[in-house]
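Methods: holo model generation. Sequences were used as deposited, without trimming of termini or removal of tags, and paired with ligand SMILES retrieved from the corresponding compound records. Each pair was processed once, and we did not select among multiple samples. The sequence and zinc ion SMILES for this entry were:
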Amino acid sequence: MEIKNAIFLDRDGTLNKGIVKENEEKFKLRPPHTLEELHIFQDISYLKNFHGRYHLFIVTNQPDIKKGFQTMEFNQFINSSILKEANITKIYSCFCLETDTGCDCYKPAPGMIFNAVTEYNIDIDNSYFIGDTWRDIGLSKNVNLKSVLIDRGHYKKMESDFLERGLTPDYKITSFLELGNIIK
Ligand SMILES: [Mg+2]
Ligand SMILES: [Zn+2]
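and the model returned the structure below.
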């Protein structure tokens, strides 16, 4: 049987620990840049419960490579570390900057989701997006995916980002262990 349902996953701050950005006016998280900063959340192993019924896709903005803060090699190392823990069908990455013109994939832009839908014949109505920032929830709304906010302890500091944009997630969790109550 062809799998048409999908769980789309943000990466940094969702599957691995997001690192707090210094010297920012607003609270922001960034990807790990070094091995010392890399921490994969253990609860992602719960995602194995969805194997065979859902495709798992990572959908991630990675502007730090173009900005020169991150190497492509370390970015790939983070990905391969995650792939050891979870059976991910494909990783979609946007390497653009938010300000780049002609990019249709920097979240909350829908490009990466549209690519997955086309390549894997995904049924949006029975699919979910799980992420930790307003960009993930905004993207979910833009493409009519059911949205799950995962609060890894930073949500309160980012709440204004959601309120400003009128974004309310469909579900809120603090760990993937709670997903069984939401995704059947
Ligand atoms: Mg994130
Ligand atoms: Zn892009």
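The first strand starts at residue 5 and ends at 9.
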